[in-house]
Amino acid sequence: MTEIFGIPTQALFGQLLIGLINGAFYALLSLGLAVIFGLLNIINFTHGAQYMMGAFVAWWLLNKFGLGYWWALLIAPLVVGATGVVIERTMLSRLYKLDHLYGLLLTFGLALIIQGLFRQQYGSSGQPYAIPEALQGGQNLGFMFLPNYRAWIIVASLIVCLATWYVIERTKLGAYLRAATENPQLVQAFGINVPRMITLTYGFGVALAALAGVMAAPIYQVSPQMGADLIIVVFAVVVIGGMGSILGSVVTGFGLGLVEGLTKVFYPEASSTVIFIIMAIMLLVRPAGLFGTQK
């Protein structure tokens, strides 16, 4: 068996694959957070609960209505995104002129309420969700076995992340969104409904979290707690990449997933803390993050 730095090749590439998969979820979730914070200046602590809701909507669709994974990829983000629209219209819209702390406290409280309701209804144990038939099996690459569903997660996440970055940074719609955050009165003078744009932007960020939840359902069991621990790591990813930076979220999400995977190979004891160590160093050296800008 071949080795690299004394580590069996199969074990090394296996951990890198796990790191890429984790990075795909980090990127998707931090992307949603970056969209919401960058364009709305809201620190959305409900993001982990909305990720969990996406997985549960997929589970409901399968078990209650017989609609499988591919339908869930379409329906779950729309359903959870619609709940995000309701939250923004009824609650968050009242806090825009106040300090960011109020939005953080509100969304944190909502996250606890949502998780508590789901835990009361379904308990703490997870619900299984099968991998879709079309993505079962895998490919033998010689140096490792690559499950088809894992490969799909990485590719699909990349496509969604890059498409979102392109729309926000390279299209007229994205220019309107960015301008609305800087000078809403001017944008409204051009006949654009800024409050509606803000609402739909929040709904889109929530829908990204739900999409990640659907994609995570076949890998991790569908559980009320599945977003609670992950969201802390994702916030660290957003801070390292730069608060509100779309590109920073994507690059840092995948990059830190790989770093975490390599740490599990060479120094397993630090694998659960390496991202937070990097965040602490980043805050000392470059508080705005890798891709952020000082204000």
Explain this structure:
- The chain has 295 residues and is mostly helical.
- Helices cover 70% and strands 3% of the residues.
- The longest helix is centred in the N-terminal third of the chain and has 32 residues, at 9-40.
- The mean pLDDT is 89.
- A hairpin with a 4-residue loop joins strand 3 (138-140) and strand 4 (145-147).
- The chain has a two-stranded antiparallel ribbon.
- The protein has one domain (3-96, 143-285).
- The protein has 11 helices and 4 strands.
Please supply descriptive tags for the structure shown above.
single chain; 295 residues; mainly alpha; two-stranded antiparallel sheet; globular
Major beta sheet, specifics? 2 strands, antiparallel
Shape: globular
Distance between the termini: 53 Å
Radius of gyration: 19 Å
Brief write-up:
By secondary structure, the chain is mostly helical. It has eleven helices and four strands; from the N terminus they run E-E-H-H-H-H-E-E-H-H-H-H-H-H-H.
What's the SSE blueprint?
Elements (H helix, E strand, L loop, with lengths): L2 E2 L2 E2 H32 L6 H19 L3 H22 L9 H23 L15 E3 L4 E3 H23 L1 H11 L1 H6 L4 H23 L11 H14 L4 H21 L7 H12 L10
Antiparallel strand pairs: 1-2, 3-4
Helix pairs in contact: 1-5, 1-8, 1-9, 1-10, 2-3, 2-4, 2-8, 3-8, 5-6, 9-10, 9-11
